TrEMBL record:
Residues 17-35 have a biased composition (Low complexity). This is HNH nuclease domain-containing protein. GO terms for molecular function: endonuclease activity; nucleic acid binding; zinc ion binding. Residues 99-145 form the HNH nuclease domain. Residues 1-46 are annotated as: Disordered. PANTHER family: HNH ENDONUCLEASE.
Amino acid sequence: MNPNSTTAGNRRKIKKSTPFPSTRRLRSTSPSRRVSPPPSAAAIGDGGLFVEELAQFEALRISPESPNPRSFPHNVKQQCWEKAEKIKGRDPDRWRRDSLGNILFRKLAGCPGCLCHDYDHIVPYSKGGKSTLENCQVLQATVNRFKGNRTEISKNELIQRSATCLVSGREMDFLELSSYGNVRRGQDSGGCKIQ
């Protein structure tokens, strides 16, 4: 058995009287890795303020943003959602239809359910598609996963892969209420208006 491995039987107990809780050992496989204690007032006053930490920070380099990121920027996602077909009687900020007619709920993004959606590259990213508004569509997540990076796929095939979801107006209200805390109707909802 490896003497460096940790098991429940041979873990060292940490004393609760440690002056700086941050000096406790981290739960890692490296026995020498520790968190530094806070600096003393003398270290700050002498001008030796975190010299080692400062050097480590300066060594970090944030890579410049790629001119064509794989995922869509937030503003493109917003505009892409606005491009999708509105559902009559529903708040367009919360409900839309994809190009196949599937109902989508704004709060359900990236999950595999029937109301869930993804922001899809019309021309796949792996085939040179850009992450721009012109190349973005809101698509039911299950359909998007089936589509993958294929371009030679018919609309009928995608419709057959759609997750069937029959949602009543009352169920839509319940989803809105549980996600947003209220129910908002679209401007074209009809019905009586109290003046």
